[in-house]
Amino acid sequence: MLILSSCGFRRPAGWRSIRETNGKLQGFEKLREVDVIVLGGGIVGITAAIYLRMSGRDVLVVERGRPGDEASRGNAGVLTREDLLPFSIPDDPLRLMGAVFNASSRFRYDPRILSRLLSWAGRLCEVSERDNGMRYATAIASLQRTAIFEHKALAKRASAERFFRPSGWIKLYRSDAGLEELDMELHFARIFGTTYEDLDESRLCELEPDLYAGDFSRALFFPESLSVSSPGGLTKAYARHLRDVGGVVETGDARSLARSSGRWAVNTLTGKVCADNIVVSLGAWSSQVLEPLGIQFPLMASRGYYRHFRPVDGVNLRRPIHDVEQGYMLSPMERGLRLTTGHEFTGVEAKAETAQLRRNVKAARKVFPLGPEIEEELCFAARPLLPDSLPVVGLAPGHKGLWLNFGHAGHGFTTAPATAVLLAQLMNDEEPFTDPSPLSPLRFGL
Ligand SMILES: Cc1cc2nc3c(=O)[nH]c(=O)nc-3n(C[C@H](O)[C@H](O)[C@H](O)COP(=O)(O)OP(=O)(O)OC[C@H]3O[C@@H](n4cnc5c(N)ncnc54)[C@H](O)[C@@H]3O)c2cc1C
To answer: Nearest residue CA, atom 18 of ligand 1?
Structure first.
């Protein structure tokens, strides 16, 4: 908020003078100070703000829209305990060709970003060569374990327990290539002691009687995972809880971030706010704030489309299912049965394309009775994906007070409270609950 000096005001306390380059007084600007400004009001930013607030910090979240309206709304709502495989490029030749020629229903890419995608894929290959998946699995297993515990505690405090269901979820496999992936799943599940049930057809029919099981050769049931009935609703409930405990959420554009008198400053609708510490939790948009500061991360937007379907009379899906090779998921939600698609690599602001959603809906209708579509418009959300599928949590080297907390990939709805705890511990110089090095910003050569 700017008050013009020509109105005859004197500078009030807590306001700062704005001067033109010739030193002439132009007006006064309200200057507020908090301990930490969190950029982004998705599940990652909101939970980070809650844990920082709980550790006694004065926190303000800057969100351009409403909290929880982007990826934190448009996901499949699984709080997973055992999803231990990173995003990978298919090594099966048929699936690889399908992906290259944009004929796969699991992956699509926008040809306009091909050169960026190839360089990103190169980084992914480097990571896979260095690691057999163990580093990823170790880091994500620890985050997922803590996250489920923290989600439950947070839901209780936020009176949001009604969103949670102890449903577990089912992964369905069709072909030999899918079964190779299943073997990897089982390999890590055994190492990390996660509970699973290898379902035969009759047990699958018992768990999901309305699913046409004949198309699938194997199915795994993960009973310890939870699911939520409205991911956006839960994020909003957490945002209300943040306000209840004294945090603030304001509308503003994070791209206004600047250094001002040795501190960080951001403009919101109610004026400029300053803090010693900034947390970047802008999901797939994080580079829009970091690149102007000279900080480059290989962050890719992996878009997923989602659509709700009315239930068919007498037909019921009891828990989320994932058709692994087709790439889509079906999840029962408050609004209807939600279908979410696999990965579309595209610009974060790119126009919506119908191809992947059409393919996935066609495949899903063959295995489960879906009623009429609820929305006409194309809804989509972007997974913030780094080449090793792990988030970045920690201080940006060489930038005092600039904390990074983004890149939560396809698990961020689950892992957000765990990275929030870690971030608060790092910021408060406390012993971290997990080894922070696999999540360090330094791993991308900053
Ligand atoms: C189809 C799909 C299915 C998924 N399924 C699951 C699942 O089942 N389980 C799971 O754990 N995860 C799942 N995920 C992943 C999960 O949704 C994401 O990892 C998580 O929501 C990321 O949260 P975030 O807060 O980082 O991002 P977002 O929710 O996208 O939040 C970023 C926020 O930053 C704001 N912002 C952007 N630019 C600016 C700006 N300039 N100024 C101010 N604010 C700005 C945005 O408005 C947004 O609110 C899925 C994702 C997709 C797309």
So the answer is: 412
